[in-house]
């Protein structure tokens, strides 16, 4: 393993502010020879040879064409259209339980986009989260020849969800774009409260501890430590070309948090630098791969004096390490409230 591990961001800029349309998350690591998943899923992508800033995936500050510039100063995922591109859901009302989602990315002329730049092993990254932030799905859709994307999904309950598409068109001069669109699952809806404050999460026999601070307008470190049976995990496998992938969503509007990755190796620590755009409550979802399987650990964090829904991993000004009961995650790898799941189309 190359000891001089460089950092790649899954969808984060190297800027210090929470700019417009940031990506869905960031990863730590790339490595030279990622292992292949044992069960035919979550096979790690080849390590990128460039930083996110160099390959154009970072930031998502602008759109792909001069005639359709991206909206300025907005967090990622808040718009269904940006930079001349639109996330068009063909199945906006999926059923409860197992169903299939279909969507496309359309350009300014209304045509389906078929050419994308592969970044971190995928042409497009797709995430679905419930409005109450209890359910989180990191999906891997398959693109058809006509530009229609398809993926299976399992949504546990009726209610409101949001779908996020993170991609970079192959058009000359194109930059990364993150779009968001609403999904509605029909049926009786009973929103759940934000998961309880907890500095640790247990998932499938692993324990992940969150430490660090999250402050509005100020960069701080978030360190997640992975252990199993009381022993540190030091052989994490790369997932999407990195040792860990972090998605942060703001309670209320589900805006993406601007997260920076830090230097690091294959565990037990996976470290990120984050700057919150405002005080409030955020949900953090850490994906990590070990022994051929991707697992998700979820945390609730408060930034600043705002408390959002009144829960968070920590108290006071952005602390993420307060003493609190741990969060237990079912053996399926889905965090409290069903915050997990990785599906390939």
Strand content: 35-45%
Q: Globular, elongated, flat, extended or rod-shaped: what is the shape? A: globular
Percentage of residues assigned to helices: under 10%
Unreliable runs, pLDDT <50, ≥5 residues? 1-70, 306-337
Ends apart, CA distance between termini:
31 Å
**Contiguous helical run count:** 1
Kindly report the oligomeric state of this protein: single chain
Arithmetic mean pLDDT: 75
Spell out the helices and strands N to C. Answer: EHEEEEEEEEEEEEEEEEEEEE
By helix and strand content, what is the structural category?
mainly beta
Major pleated sheet: 7 strands, mixed
Per DSSP E runs of 2 or more residues, the count of β-strands stands at 21
Radius of gyration: 18 Å
Quick structural overview:
By secondary structure, the chain is an all-beta fold.
